[in-house]
Design brief:
The chain is an alpha/beta fold. Helix content is 36%, strand content 23%. Helix 3 (86-99) packs parallel to helix 4 and helix 5 (142-149) crosses helix 6. The longest helix is centred in the C-terminal third of the chain and has 16 residues, at 223-238. The protein is globular, with a radius of gyration of 17 Å.
């Protein structure tokens, strides 16, 4: 019997280099055998190593895009990347909570582009808490976790965020120099050791990781397994091509359908 097609949505920016944002998410979804739908939240003027400017899409336009898609497709998991502000994010999350409460949301809180361009410089603690309470999983890297909480220790920052949602924090360094990712859920902490790949930096790797988690969840895996599989997928992506732009077509991983 043919398996029912799984649909997921990415709300993210349009990066013309296709290395990050909505195009990176859609490529990841497609390779992992889920159907990716896209809602544009920003238009960027950039390449993989230079971001000149951002034109934000209004909250009304984002919600209009979402409404039409969600009235037609049976979406269970949705990923959010860059949006103009936390206040706008709260409006989008509130809309989803009221009208489509079955959807689980993965929020990748992009604070700064890999080129150094800053998207958000100020964070309202109260609005952040309200947003986090409405998401299923938060996927910051260590630097983003610190920026969100004003902490000086990445693990303490992740634990603070865990008080309101589940957290998968990428790339934090231990005192001995080793690198880890950490999953904090329901009072538990799981460390995933990371192999350091010198010279294998890729534009949009954080987008790929959070999109892969979203895809693996949609395929029926639990959160721990989805994070493990997405971490392995991203590791292969980092080695997929020379330069800052990776490829997906040659990545071979077992896709676990639930």
């Amino acid at each position: 019997m043919q398996q029912q097609r799984r649909y997921v949505i990415s709300i993210a920016g349009f990066d013309p280099s296709a290395g990050a944002g909505i195009l990176a998410d859609i490529k990841t979804f497609e390779h992992l055998e889920v159907y990716g739908l896209g809602v544009c939240s920003a238009i960027t003027i950039q390449t993989e190593d230079q971001l000149q400017s951002v034109r934000w899409i209004s909250c009304e336009e984002i919600i209009s895009q979402l409404k039409l898609l969600l009235e037609k497709y049976p979406v269970q998991f949705l990923k959010i990347g860059i949006v103009e502000s936390l206040e706008m994010l709260k409006k989008i999350l509130t809309y989803l909570e009221v009208h489509f409460p079955q959807i689980k949301i993965i929020w990748d809180p992009v604070m700064k582009a890999s080129s150094g361009f800053e998207f958000h410089s100020t964070i309202s603690k109260s609005v952040l808490t309200q947003c986090c309470q409405k998401v299923f999983l938060l996927t910051p890297n260590a630097e983003e976790a610190l920026a969100l909480t004003n902490e000086t220790d990445a693990v303490l920052a992740a634990e603070q965020l865990q008080q309101v949602t589940q957290v998968f924090m990428k790339s934090f360094k231990m005192k001995d120099g080793s690198m880890y990712d950490v999953l904090l859920q329901q009072g538990t902490r799981l460390n995933f050791k990371s192999e350091v790949l010198d010279g294998f930096v890729k534009h949009g790797s954080g987008c790929v990781l959070s999109a892969a988690i979203t895809a693996f969840l949609a395929l029926g895996n639990d959160l721990k397994t989805s994070c493990e599989l997405a971490k392995s997928y991203t590791f292969e992506f980092l080695q997929s091509a020379p330069g800052l732009l990776g490829t997906h077509h040659a990545i071979k991983l077992p896709v676990q359908h639930g």
